[in-house]
Amino acid sequence: MKTVLLPEGNALKADALQLAIHNSANFSSIATDAQGVIQIFNVGAERMLGYSAAEVVNQITPAGISDAQEIIARAAALSLEAGMDIRPGFEALVFKASRGIEDIYELTYIRKDGSRFPAIVSVSPLRDAHEKIIGYLLMGTDNTARKQVEAEQYLLDQRLREQQLALQETNVALEAARAAAEKANRAKSDFLSSMSHELRTPLNAVLGFAQLLASDKPPPTTSQQRSLDQILKGGWYLLQLINEILDLAMIESGKVTMSQESMGLTEVFKDCQAMIGPLADKRGIHLVFPKLSRRFFVHADRTRVKQVMINLLSNAVKYNRRGGMVAVECGEGREGMVRISVTDNGAGLSPDQVDKLFQPFNRLGQEDGAEEGTGIGLVVTKQLTELMGGSIGVRSNEGTGTTFWIELVASDEPTLEPMALDELLLPETQDTESQATLLYIEDNPANLALVEQLILRRSDLKLLTAIDGHMGIQLAQAYQPDVILMDINLPGISGYGCLKILQDNPATAHIPVLALSANAMPRDIEKGMEAGFLRYLTKPINVVEFMSALDMALEFSVVHTGNAS
């Protein structure tokens, strides 16, 4: 084998270096002279490329070594760039002059048998003592394992990108579907609400004229009365259906407003007993309400609690057996909750019926029964209960009866914020004839009692009360109070509706109206002031603020009407 040209120096070191290069099995070492004639072809090159050294030494990279030929051709091309000659017939592969002669390349080696494998090859020029290039050294290693890892990583990255893209597309589709569903729900709710309101106008005429005909003089004949009874029965049922659909639409569209405050259940039970009693008596149903050893208070909307209880009680009466019983119980529920139960001893429900109880418009096979119904009431009941932070459940056994229960958040009895009342209230020395009149419109008995206690301590005021908006408007028109104090969430007509009626009537437009409500968010207060309330007070009552607002309202009344003294 021809020895490679090396710079002059220690012969032992040169021999040791040549021996190490020649015997390295893990790296292919190919050295050429400046013209590309192979001078060294080591053991590693033989193992990797399948050629013996005898086949290639003193040859210009024969055509079969391929990438070895390419490497040497690149080195020869670089030599050309350096001004050196290349042997005739050698096909040089010229590459960018911007790259230096010494470099590392990722190439494909072609073995003698034609098989290929990736390699990493370092090309280094060999120089003499005068820095003249006298040859090239090509050190190569098999890059198959790395390439396999890179290929696997690429495939993994590709799959990950595809999965991420698919996930993004799925998320986009889900978001679009959610938005479409919300839009459809809003459109449905808006449609139901609009239709419910539109149906009330003709229904008002139907029910109104039917009642007029029924009360005519002379009275209608028996046959006519039967027809009128059917018209009225169908009309009132249709009105119930419209009201329940409207409730459901408002709940689903998020338009239901809650005025939650501490309220006693005793007053609710009394009201419910008065309302359901006639229906129970008509059907021979015995109503049993609890005799409570202590008063229970819950944090809820009084109007909505009454609506929930009336629905549960009316169902218990309607679907009971003739001469049956409906029992109401009240006690502690889960921690921090109060449980109210309504139990009947009617036919009961099967497990399948219990599972379908809260599906809209599902009457559980009662469509052809004697009792009219919409299949909406329990759905509304459940959603209203949950909106108040409560829960609802049912237990039933076929043949023995059913118990519906609701749990509401327990609350303490409403109290005034602790204040030094004696410093705030006027001494009882004024002439009663000079007292100004305060009209308080409120449906919550506990709140009425609290305000009554406060006004009793003010000798300059006398109090009128009304438990709903209609009665409050009538009292305002009849008694011309100096100041009106009004709850917002009133039954029948809201506080805003009452205020509008009072403002539109010249006889009451001058009366200052104060709002007193449990709706205490900043937007609630802003909305109240925009509507025209003189002040918007929030519950629980702050005595200092309350008295100050009354004084301001009385001064306003004096300035604008001269009535208060």
Automatic annotation (TrEMBL):
It catalyses: ATP + protein L-histidine = ADP + protein N-phospho-L-histidine. Residues 103-155 form the PAC domain. Residues 160-187 form a coiled coil. The modification 4-aspartylphosphate is found at D487. InterPro entries: CheY-like_superfamily, HATPase_C_sf, HATPase_dom, His_kinase_dom, HisK_dim/P_dom, HisK_dim/P_sf, PAC, PAS. Residues 13-59 form the PAS domain. Signal peptide: none annotated. It is an enzyme of class 2 (transferase). Pfam families: HATPase_c (PF02518), HisKA (PF00512), PAS_9 (PF13426), Response_reg (PF00072). Keywords: Coiled coil, Kinase, Phosphoprotein, Transferase. PANTHER family: OSMOSENSING HISTIDINE PROTEIN KINASE SLN1, TWO-COMPONENT HISTIDINE PROTEIN KINASE. This is histidine kinase.
